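Quick start: read one record
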Amino acid sequence: MKTHVAIYDSHEKAINATKVLNSKNFPMEHVSILGKAEITDDHIHIKQLDTTKNAPALIGSGAGVVIGLLTGIGIFTIPGFGFLYGAGALVGAFGGFEVGLVTGGIATLLATIGIKKDSVVKLHEHLNEGKFLVVVKGPLKEVEKAEHILHTEGTHLEMLD
């Protein structure tokens, strides 16, 4: 198993990356999106770099695509970090990590899902800055295919293994 992460500066760009993967017949059960969320007036908002584009996580054109392509959406509270928005294959795994996150935080979560130790701090910083991660985890050949597709698509800020 291998994990690959592409970083995007907006939720929309991360959603578009999943659309590209889907259009190239990449298995969506190996794809997840992570980003910071906030709760305002009892609505969950996706936190982005451009705060004028904040939108409720479950409302809008992008949410339908996420729900359709990925397996689910979840919001998780992580002490010292706040709320983490997750969509896709890793969301189910987060539920199991919830108890462990009370003590370990986001660094533990990222390390547990297969992110290399030297990349964990950098990804944590990206999430804190309001960026979004498209995480692909699966067999080596599939992850290499996704890496090639995402690199060709080219709207990411950075890619990490």
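The CA atoms of residues 101 and 108 lie 7 Å apart.
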